[in-house]
Amino acid sequence: MAKKPTNKQNLIDAMAGVAVEVKASDGAISRIADLAEQQHKAAIRVAELMDDLKTANEHLEKLKTIDLPEAMREAGMEKFTTADGLEVEVKPDVKVGIPAPRREEAYNWLAEQGYGGLIKSDIDILFDREELKKAEKLADQLRKKGYEVSFNQSVHYQTLKAFVKERMADTESEIKFPLDLFGAFPYTVAVVKASKKRKLK
Fold first, then answer.
1. Which residue, among 195, 160, 186, 194, has the nearest Cα to 65 in the 3D structure?
2. DSSP 85
3. Residues 74, 64: Cα–Cα separation, whole Å
4. What are the pLDDT digits (tens) for 29-82?
5. Distance between CA 143 and CA 151 in Å, rounded?
């Protein structure tokens, strides 16, 4: 599989053939050419930093969710404090994200099981600036009058995550929780923080 181009390479490709050589005929042209060169270099530097940040985040995620949890599991420990005062603890966590094609199915499941209160509904109504008073009317009335109204439902990510964790922890419930319907992926994460002893050093 071909390697995905970096942000830096995408920028360089996009700018290829755009730059033109400018002969400074006076101070203004010279300054423009200098600033253009600075902006070009600054844009490349930002792209490099974005690539570095992406790589660093991927490395951190691997340490948190794979390497350190595996090392702790092999050692048979859930908590550990290093000689340098770093406190390590492995905790269960879950990633959630309802697949778009199954959103209505997931919302119906929540409503049928008595958790419909988790679903929040938003109505977006488009008005001209002068129509402030009309904005106070109900959505169905506005539709009859020809206004464009969009109706959306959603469950806040943190609310959904807390709910999924609660359902997964409920081992006494007779209702089998559909993990795949909510895009739930259980995993363990290592939490590392400096102890008070280390902070005082």
1. 186
2. S
3. 15
4. 888 888 889 999 999 999 999 999 999 999 999 999 999 999 999 999 999 999
5. 11
